[in-house]
Amino acid sequence: MYGNGTEPATLDPHTSTGVWEDRIQSDLFMGLTQSAADGSTMPGVAERWEVSADGLTWTFYMRESYWSDGVPVTADDFVFSLRRVLDPKTASEYASLIFIIKGGQAINEGKAPLESLGVRALDPRTLQIELNNPAAFLPELTKHHILYPVPKHVVEREGPSWVRPGKMVSNGPYMLVDWKLGDHLKTVKNPRFFEADKVCVDEVRFYPTSDAISAERRVASGELDLNTDMQSNRIAFLREKMPGYVRTNTYLGVTYLAFNNGPKSGYPPFRDRRVRQALAMSIDRDFITEKLFRGGQAPALTMVPPGVANYRAARPPYWFDWPLERRQAEARKLLAAAGYGPGKPLKVEIKHRNSPDPMLYMPAVQADWKMIGVEVTLAQQETQIAYADYRARAFQVADAGWVADYNDATSFLDLQRSWYGPQNYGDYNSPAFDALMERADNEPDPVKRADYMAQAEQLMLEDAPIAPVYYLINKNLVSPKITGWVDNLSDHHRTRWLCVK
Fold first, then answer.
1. Which of 38, 57, 382, 477 gives a 20 to 30 Å CA spacing to 268?
2. Domain architecture of the chain: domains with CATH
3. Could you give the count of Cα atoms lying within 13 Å of 216 in the half-sphere of its Cβ?
4. Tens of pLDDT, residues 310-326
């Protein structure tokens, strides 16, 4: 019995965006690689792979494996799936994640045919991928849900309804058998999975649990075996009340505020950098993390969190080590220079998620901005709906969280590239930032590459299209009767590694 935060919008791995969807999809599907119990990357459908000397051509050798209906999984399924992600008709919001594949961006922009994508089936079990630039992190990226294969023979026959119970065919350790919206989603072990004999749990039920306190009670009573979140300010209490249940760990994730500066739907005050800087510098991050949360989160002044591989921390904004009073005084000056003050206060609305921690820290930000003369209203929304509005640019300030799709700084910094699409919520557009990131893309020396990215991040932070607030920790309530759970940076806990005493 799995408490999963919120209701999935879809189970199609090529059109989903949330970690709550990924948890289910990672049970149903498997990519070329997969997450081990400790979150590290290990072979999945691919048993092994090779890369050319220039780092541009990757060849994956696939094991014998089958879809849950008995049809073999082939390299052609992967070719079909990657083309499907990039096909503009699919409208995949994660398509830009695989623009590193040769021809990917042109296809997604409707400028080239699907067949021009740099992906080929050399034979039924050998897949070749050509990249635009070297990407040593590709094996980690291939375990992301956007690169999962989907069953060509079913998708073409059933169309959009292929994801429904009774029609979905999957290649992972589990199969979908039931989905009652707002209640639960049920999966059962896939007998055709290549390691079905090593899968311990026979059946999983996923429940939406947006009410954190109610979820606590359900875990304590045994109604749920685990829940994927809890209120940070209750962690110490829960450690005492429910010994052995609380699992926290460093997480490759950040919570930030995005300022809508889009050319069409953007909020006009945010076109002035001084306004964005004033709001970013006046947040009391120490109070939020140390007094409100008390769960181990750290104040964030950069977008890329500590622990990201092959990166050096960027220099934070110029005001990062000033006392709060000095920052607030400077913020008032910046707002005054931009034309705002007691007679003409800046008015903004923050749209935020109804998940546990945003509900805690939003009033604190509201109070901080009130101290510099800004009138703030808060608009709470269910998480799934909030993110849909962010992607549609239906907001002024957005409370957003981002967790690494793969362990590399580009997983965070790419969000601010002008061409990145729906997940560049504030429509940041800086030719200088884009140029530095492109230099990093084409730099084979990892030290120089990291330096270009750090320069790009520093430039972006000074522009303040976003205001990082705190670095995440992963927080799970897990019954002691669950074995095989390993805390890890990516917070990947695939059910195939778990057992129940």
1. 382
2. 7-161 (3.90.76.10), 174-249+475-500 (3.40.190.10), 251-474 (3.10.105.10)
3. 17
4. 898 899 999 999 999 99
